[in-house]
Amino acid sequence: MSHPHRRILLQSGAALGLLGGLGFAASALAASKVKPSAKSALIVVDVQNCFLDGGTLAVKGGNEVIPIINKLAAQFDNIVVTQDWHTAGHASFASTHAGKKPFETTKLSYGTQVLWPDHCVQGTDDAALGKELKLPTAQLIIRKGFHKDMDSYSAFEEADHKTPTGLAGYLKSRGIKTLFVTGLATDFCVAWTAMDGRKAGFEVYVIEDATRAIDLNGSLAAAWKQMSAKGVKRIQSGDIA
After folding, report:
1. Tell me, which fold does domain 34-239 have in CATH?
2. What pTM was estimated for this model as a whole?
């Protein structure tokens, strides 16, 4: 025979479980939309001719991010743009290393370096920002990779993981707390920027459909795994309220 107190407890527990489930569903639904505030910044990574159609290191589908980023830009008071800005004969270029081909690797002073085709050389049209970009509230361009002997994927630190660009200090002095990262390429400059943003103490979202990847030997899946482990949140442009 069932004990009445036990039956009441079970019924109460079931009700609480149901309410808990509904509460979770409601909170998950509420969390599905993210609204940028005055303390948010849109980071537009390397949307340059070199990575767009016809560029020296074109990322497949790269041009597709531009209308998405332009639409997002209207929702942000703060926008930072990054620009790959290499010297001629840069250490990251395969042509700088005898016998090496693009997408092979070599060892440099700071570790393993993927070797790229010559791209985004300072002052060339190849290095210019995509002309279709419309970012009316962009206030700052961070140039990276301008030291001849060191690559720089991240907007926050160069490839030695020591040399700062000053971006973290700029954002903090402006009271920015949350970053929404977009641009090219997901598995290199976007990922490094997002992870270094977390390391610098920011809340970081990567807007997946506003990025495109090179995906070199599984680099895209690896990048998402690393970003997730660092607390970077993966969303779509439709998740922005």
Report:
1. Rossmann fold (3.40.50)
2. 0.86
